């Protein structure tokens, strides 16, 4: 077997997989088709480019599953997490980054690694040697066809929408104000990381009417509108009920309007800082498939954004993923061609962090196999283990859909109170148990034994 590992796709998962395998001493060739072959959603040729939000979501590693995943990745030497912390922006309790410097730094680190060679080319067929496919939601048509031909199954797809970005100096701060929900954050900067635009009941009702009436992007022939619930376009949420947005991304809780502190807003639109300079803000939770002209007119109905200029309007793209519970073994290998592993969003995980985490694991598993070692199974009690177990057998194949990491994927902790009242203690028990199990697994990984089948 060749000792060189080929990785197709230089997004979050591919970049992380390359870093992990290379640090284990394995020569890696990382194939990235951009910028030679572009996509509508990417703007640069940088590796690990953040296409949608600039947030890695909650950084709370004691009460939040994605924050726990941050912790586990950092303890495993993650290039994505370490670089994210180096380019962190104020975002309350979330981990948000300055997207372009972040991607440029990841690219520079990978280019400088002596075990990594980066090749700018599109791969259109399944390779014969050791390979990780981490092509993400925008897998090229030729490679997607090759995967479909090999698996004998139609590709599954949903639509992932991109939220718009506003120039900060065009936001009317005589109407809007700076505050993180519930004043989260240890510093004043963190506690003021979001800009909030308040709505009266009349404002909200008019906004909902406009959303429902706006021109939408049409689907191409043969596509179906199967959305991932964690990334629903706002107009789809509005179609589910007039109050849906007010209880979702536009909920008015945990905020006090300093311009009118005695009046509680009926709804609030939040904008999150998108770059270190503070010149760009993205509209939180406002993924959309409205046409560009409609977006401009509808979003300017938001109090405080009536004179807004947009650095980027929203968009929508097809997100391809495989039926991993059917196709992959517990080592993330394609059952029909075990020289090939899959990692990232194409496996049916959702989100930057989850994608990078599956890249981290795939890189380590591939490196161990090439070195003739057998790694112990990742404990399901960890965030990493819960996620990989879900996609490689824990999920129901017939109804398999993209999934964020969440405590519902973890084995229960015996003796803890169920329901909302016991949630804080329960989540802390989950994270304490996970940290101990992950630390122990990393120690056992370092002591991995050569497999009996090693040459």
Automatic annotation (TrEMBL):
Tell me the compartments it is located in.
Answer: Cytoplasm
What positions does the domain MnmG N-terminal occupy? 5-373
What's the catalysed reaction?
A: uridine(54) in tRNA + (6R)-5,10-methylene-5,6,7,8-tetrahydrofolate + NADH + H(+) = 5-methyluridine(54) in tRNA + (6S)-5,6,7,8-tetrahydrofolate + NAD(+); uridine(54) in tRNA + (6R)-5,10-methylene-5,6,7,8-tetrahydrofolate + NADPH + H(+) = 5-methyluridine(54) in tRNA + (6S)-5,6,7,8-tetrahydrofolate + NADP(+)
Primary location class: cytoplasm
Family in the record:
Belongs to the MnmG family. TrmFO subfamily.
Record's HAMAP family?
TrmFO
Protein known as: Methylenetetrahydrofolate--tRNA-(uracil-5-)-methyltransferase TrmFO
The organism named in the record is Roseicyclus marinus
């Amino acid at each position: 077997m060749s000792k060189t590992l080929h990785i197709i796709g230089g997004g979050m998962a591919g970049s992380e997989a390359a870093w992990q395998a290379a640090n284990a001493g394995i020569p890696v060739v990382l194939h990235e088709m951009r910028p030679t072959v572009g996509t509508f959603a990417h703007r640069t040729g940088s590796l690990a480019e953040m296409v949608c939000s600039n947030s890695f979501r909650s950084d709370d590693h004691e009460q939040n599953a994605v924050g726990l995943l941050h912790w586990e990745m950092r303890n495993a030497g993650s290039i994505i997490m370490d670089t994210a912390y180096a380019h962190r922006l104020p975002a309350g309790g979330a981990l948000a980054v300055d997207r372009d410097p972040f991607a440029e730094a990841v690219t520079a680190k990978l280019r400088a690694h002596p075990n990594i060679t980066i090749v700018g080319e599109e791969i259109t067929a399944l390779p014969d040697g050791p390979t990780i496919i981490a092509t993400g939601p925008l897998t090229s048509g030729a490679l997607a066809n090759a995967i479909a031909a090999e698996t004998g199954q139609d590709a599954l797809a949903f639509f992932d929408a991109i939220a718009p970005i506003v120039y900060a100096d065009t936001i009317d701060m005589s109407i809007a104000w700076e505050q993180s929900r519930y004043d989260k954050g240890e510093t004043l900067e963190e506690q003021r990381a979001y800009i909030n635009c308040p709505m009266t009941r009349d404002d909200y009702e008019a906004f909902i009417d406009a959303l429902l009436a706006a021109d939408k992007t049409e689907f191409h022939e043969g596509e179906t509108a199967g959305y991932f619930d964690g990334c629903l376009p706002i107009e789809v949420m509005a179609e589910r009920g007039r109050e849906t947005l007010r209880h979702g991304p536009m909920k008015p809780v945990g905020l006090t309007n300093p311009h009118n502190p005695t009046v509680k807003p009926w709804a609030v639109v939040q904008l999150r800082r998108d770059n270190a300079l503070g010149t760009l803000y993205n509209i939180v939770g406002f993924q959309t498939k409205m046409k560009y002209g409609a977006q401009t007119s509808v979003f300017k109905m938001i109090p405080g954004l009536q004179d807004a200029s947009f650095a980027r309007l929203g968009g929508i793209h097809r997100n391809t993923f495989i039926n991993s519970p059917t196709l992959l073994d517990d080592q993330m290998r394609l059952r029909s061609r075990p020289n090939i592993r899959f990692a990232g969003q194409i496996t049916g995980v959702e989100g930057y962090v989850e994608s990078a985490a599956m890249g981290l694991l795939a890189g380590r598993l591939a490196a161990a196999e090439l070195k003739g070692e057998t790694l112990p199974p990742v404990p399901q009690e960890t965030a990493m283990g819960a996620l990989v177990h879900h996609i490689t057998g824990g999920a129901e194949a017939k109804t398999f859909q993209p999934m964020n990491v969440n405590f519902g994927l973890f084995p229960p902790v015996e003796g803890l109170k169920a329901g909302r009242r016991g949630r804080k203690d329960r989540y802390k028990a989950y994270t304490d148990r996970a940290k101990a199990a992950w630390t122990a697994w990393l120690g056992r990984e370092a002591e991995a034994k050569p497999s009996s089948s090693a040459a």
